[in-house]
């Protein structure tokens, strides 16, 4: 049976995604710097590790990877470089070495062209852009998810992959992002594809192959 490694498992999206993947019958390993944060989720292989160090050992027996780690809004540019860029690139290298069959990465709206957005988070978008490009060029089968502004509502299960013209409508719930991740891994499709994700009016199953 294949096993999926979730990197960023204790983050907001990671904590939503783990139970969904488990309920979908997907065997899981979760990399966590603080394993105690996953104490309430049973039936997964919790691996202690730090993304700023070597974490290749976490890839053992895993043939799919979800990278949803992020430095967080409260950190500075140093963590953006070390987590959103460098740790992502290391994960891609480990995935290639271990012949991972599918690498799903959570990126960001605007990572396609950071110069197009006048925003104080441009360094973050540059880091995401470079990590995405590194994955694309690695040869590892990938799915890149670029959600809009993340919200904490319960989600609707309905999305659009077309960027709304109104910036105020360019948002999506973390719950729906987790549902998309689950859908991608359940189907095993959507390889070598990039999706932007926003709240919409179409069921996830009708948009994600």
Structural topology:
Elements: E1 3-7, H1 12-23, E2 27-32, E3 45-48, E4 64-67, H2 77-97, E5 102-106, H3 122-138, E6 142-147, E7 149-151, E8 158-160, E9 171-173, H4 174-187, E10 193-199, E11 202-203, H5 204-207
Parallel strand pairs: 1-2, 1-4, 2-3, 4-5, 5-6, 6-10, 7-9
Antiparallel strand pairs: 8-10, 8-11
Distance between the termini: 22 Å
SSE order, as H and E? EHEEEHEHEEEEHEEH
How many domain regions? 1
> Which CATH architecture is right?
3-Layer(aba) Sandwich
Give the full name of the CATH homologous superfamily. NAD(P)-binding Rossmann-like Domain
Structure, described:
With 209 residues, this protein is of the alpha/beta class. The chain has a single domain, classed as 3-Layer(aba) Sandwich (Rossmann fold). It has five helices and eleven strands. The strands form two sheets. It has a nine-stranded mixed beta sheet with strand order 3-2-1-4-5-6-10-8-11, sandwiched between helices. It has a two-stranded parallel ribbon with strand order 7-9. The longest helix has 21 residues. The chain is globular and about 45 Å long. The protein starts with a strand and ends with a helix.
């Amino acid at each position: 049976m294949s096993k999926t490694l979730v990197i960023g498992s204790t983050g907001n999206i990671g904590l939503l995604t783990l139970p969904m993947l488990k309920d979908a019958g997907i065997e899981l390993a979760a990399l966590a710097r603080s394993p105690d944060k996953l104490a309430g989720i049973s039936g997964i292989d919790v691996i202690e590790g730090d993304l700023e160090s070597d974490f290749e050992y976490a890839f053992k027996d895993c043939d799919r990877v979800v990278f949803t780690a992020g430095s967080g809004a409260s950190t500075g540019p140093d963590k953006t470089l070390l987590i959103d860029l460098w740790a992502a690139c290391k994960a891609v290298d480990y995935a290639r070495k271990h012949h991972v069959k599918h690498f799903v990465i959570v990126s960001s709206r605007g990572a396609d062209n950071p110069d197009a957005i006048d925003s104080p988070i441009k360094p973050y978008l540059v880091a995401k852009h470079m990590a995405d490009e590194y994955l694309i060029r690695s040869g590892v089968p990938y799915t890149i998810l670029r959600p809009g502004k993340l919200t904490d509502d319960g989600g609707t299960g309905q999305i659009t992959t077309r960027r709304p013209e109104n910036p105020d409508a360019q948002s999506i719930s973390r719950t729906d992002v987790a549902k998309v991740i689950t859908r991608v891994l359940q189907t095993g499709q959507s390889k070598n594809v990039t999706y932007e994700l926003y709240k919409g009016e179409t069921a996830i199953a009708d948009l994600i192959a």
